[in-house]
Amino acid sequence: PYASTIVVPTAFNAGSTNNLLIGKTAGGNDYVVTADSAAGSTGVKTFVLATVGTGAYISADQDIYVTYTQTGTAATAGIATITLAFSVNNDIS
Question: What is the pTM of this model?
């Protein structure tokens, strides 16, 4: 299986929390749980899509939204690259 990742080379530095939410709507976290999207520390965060999971299907095209949420003092730094792994179901039934 392919891994979805959030790579954070420069940590987001808001005063309290630094989360990247990935969901079906702006501000939603349907696809990535908050614990997997903490952007306050550098590194590679690997995750399974929260709602659909490994081997599950999305039956129609779906917009994907990424929202950065912070609390405390506003962030002045932060860089992230997000990769969502998926494959097309080409099974003929």
Answer: 0.79
Helix/strand/coil for 36:
helix
What whole-number distance in Å separates Cα of residue 72 and Cα of residue 57?
38
Burial class for 8, CB neighbours closer than 10 Å (0-12, 13-18, 19+): buried
Q: Which of 24, 30, 23, 87 is nearest to 55 (CA)?
A: 87
- Sheet with 79-83, edge to edge strand ranges: 43-47, 4-10, 79-83
Tens of pLDDT, residue by residue over 22-57, are 888 888 887 887 777 889 999 998 877 765 555 556
Rounded Cα gap, residues 11 and 39, in angstroms: 6
For 8, residues 6+ apart whose C-beta sits below 8 A from its C-beta are 39, 41, 42, 43, 44, 45, 78, 79, 80
